[in-house]
Design a protein that fits this description.
Elements lengths: L13 H8 L7 H6 L3 H7 L8 H22 L5 H11 L2 H10 L10 H5 L6 H32 L6 H7 L2 H13 L4 E8 L6 E8 L2 E8 L2 H16 L8
Antiparallel strand pairs: 1-2, 2-3
Helix pairs in contact: 4-5, 4-8, 6-8, 10-11
Length: 245
Amino acid sequence: MTTNPLVQTPQPDLHLLEEKLGYHFRDRTFLQKAMVHSSHAFEQGRQIQKDNETLEFLGDAVLDLTVGHALFRHFPEMREGDLTRLRAALVNERHLARMAKDLELGRYLLLGKGEETNRGREKASILSCAFEAVAGAIFLDGGYAAAAEFVERYFTPWFDDRQQTMFLADAKSSLQELLQERFNEGPSYVLERDEGPDHNKTFHVSVRFREEILGQGSARSKKEAEQEAAAMALRTLAGPEHGGR
């Protein structure tokens, strides 16, 4: 275990996190700060413990620029509107939280007791902010080149495949356009069920076309569940049995 003099609670070994990130900090206090949630800093006293919110602010801008730059290079013929939608999909809360989970950022976070009790290590909002803070920390430690290399490593697998980019952007719009083009009809979305308390519901949605279920999705909001269902439908329609390539 390593301990930052400014941190009053032990953190897991950040060497392991650096290995996962593929980046070794010259000044590891940047990474240590990126792992401090505001709830922990509040409990410790902000004059002693600084949280990751300013790094999150910086990282948000860093990701917008570096992801936008990567998309511009990979898709030089893509229209501005499509590039904007793709970037928005790549840096939204859900996608950043997914990548944060892949990196196991949750296990390295310092949380307040309340957030710890409320399973804060699994919350998309906290994980996505931590990912942004890491991006900001890498930028401060290694500059634009280091941040751009980090983005290339973790973002480009999501858009190296043009078909994957369609799933990431706006799946509902893509599905609507595809079905209208092929059949001159659009899909319908059905809320199959919801479960959980009012403040923490999970919605289960199916997307149907001519009574056939093309995809299903589950999420904390109906809108996100519909997007998940539409993305599954696009994968289904891409198969040879539906005339895909």
